[in-house]
């Protein structure tokens, strides 16, 4: 009996360390590196540094990808914002499933409202979610929002009424530009946007180094 239980526990552990198996037919992945479509999109990939809630790098490379239709929609939002004096600043795009699993393992309690359950996978794993903010075209600086990126507090709510009028206006400007291109904001994260076709793509666990850079 002990041997059977040990084998069962080992199997459950192995399954827990693998992406969930999904039924159905999905589109073939076509991850595009965002800066190859428009080099004026700026990157601040904090998960490639120690400046994140994990406290250490979880990416070996500071790169950002999305599925092609989502990437092209993001570029349209970026270019529409130029007329208002802003550009898009990208914190994260496609995220391998193993990183989502790591986020889940290092959080607990209320923090888990801000990370995806790896048993279900995330929209980031499908290449259809992006974390982003705005930068000022004149100064090149990141625009202030009511809360910080990855801040696990009420200030992250897209409808948070605190902060300054200028901060709320910037947050709402970002939202309007993204929604115009088929993205919706995550209910508790002002920086997180999901592309409308996310259900059409599979959960992926491909490292950045294995993703092509075809424009």
Describe the 3D structure.
This protein has about 220 residues and is an alpha+beta fold. The protein has one domain: Muramoyl-pentapeptide Carboxypeptidase, domain 2, CATH 3.30.1380. Helix content is about 25%, strand content about 15%. It has helices spanning about 1-15, 35, 70-80, 95-105, 165-180, and strands at about 30-35, 40-45, 65, 85-90, 130-135, 185, 190-195. The chain has a five-stranded mixed beta sheet, covered by helices on one side. The protein has a two-stranded antiparallel sheet with strand order 1-3. The longest helix has 15 residues, at about 1-15. The protein is globular and about 45 Å long. Mean pLDDT is about 90; it is low at about 1-15.
Helix content: 25-40%
Helix/strand/pairing category: alpha+beta
Number of contiguous helices: 5
CATH hierarchy class name: Alpha Beta
For the biggest β-sheet, the strand order reads 2-4-5-7-6
Q: Give the oligomer, counting copies of the same chain as homo and different chains as hetero.
A: single chain
Quickly count the domains: 1
CATH architecture: 2-Layer Sandwich
């Amino acid at each position: 009996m002990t041997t059977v239980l040990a084998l069962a526990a080992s199997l459950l552990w192995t399954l827990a360390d693998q992406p969930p198996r999904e039924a159905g037919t999905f589109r073939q992945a076509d991850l595009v590196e965002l800066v190859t479509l428009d080099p004026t999109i700026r990157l601040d990939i904090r998960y490639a540094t120690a400046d994140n809630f994990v406290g250490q790098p979880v990416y070996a490379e500071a790169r950002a990808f999305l599925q092609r239709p989502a990437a092209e929609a993001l570029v349209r939002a970026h270019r529409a914002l130029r007329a208002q004096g802003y550009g898009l600043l990208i914190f994260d795009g496609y995220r391998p499933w193993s990183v989502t699993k790591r986020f889940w393992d290092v959080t607990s309690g209320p923090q888990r409202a801000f990370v995806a359950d790896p048993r279900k996978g995330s929209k980031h794993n499908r290449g259809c979610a992006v974390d982003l903010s705005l930068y000022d075209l004149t100064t090149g600086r990141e625009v202030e929002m009511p809360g910080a990126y990855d801040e696990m507090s009420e200030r992250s709510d897209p409808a948070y009424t605190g902060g300054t009028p200028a901060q709320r206006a910037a947050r709402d400007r970002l939202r309007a530009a993204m929604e115009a291109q088929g993205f919706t904001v995550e209910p508790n994260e002002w920086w997180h946007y999901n592309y409308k076709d996310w259900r059409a793509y599979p959960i992926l666990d491909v490292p950045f180094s294995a993703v092509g850079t075809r424009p």
